[in-house]
Predict the structure.
Amino acid sequence: MRTTAEVARTEGSWVVIGTRVSPVFHTNAAGPRRPYIDVTLACGKASDFTCLVFRNCYTASISIEQQVSNGRHLDPRMLLPRKELMRDPHCEDDAQAWHAVYSSHFKQPLLDEDDAIILRIYLLQPSPNWPVFSLQQVQAHRFDPLLLQLAPNGSHEEPIPASTKSTTGPSRPFSRLSATSASPVAATTGAAAAAAA
């Protein structure tokens, strides 16, 4: 029989977070122009974010910064210096694979914001084979673990999603992705496959 802690780590619900993705922009700073996209999450609390799921489109690697509000300015805060998306930038075998970046992959934690969290994702592709590259179907998710309550006799009662125990909900509405702990990558790719069928 699994302990309460083991069940809480593995069972729960994946919740879709409102996600807005910009077109590909290029830096204006001196030196090589770096392409990037800004991903805005409809949440202000860093604890609401668990992972970012996307389908690659010929991008060799990425780095991720948080754009932290500082009065009228946004200050960059490096979260993930580099994540490889392709084994070989010159070969397209895995150029359109699905990926998930979890908050546990970040070198330093996200910071809370008053309104929305903005992630800037820099795109790198050194190969001349792919002049156009980006990320597609970018979607943020939150994982709500189950809370297990003990009955008076010490047995486990029906597990309750953590979100139902909260007295204050997220700043913007979320929609349920799954009632199980299945990976959001699996759920997203399954939905994409069903739509294409």
Remarks:
- The CA atoms of residues 68 and 74 lie 5 Å apart.
- The first helix runs from residue 4 to 10.
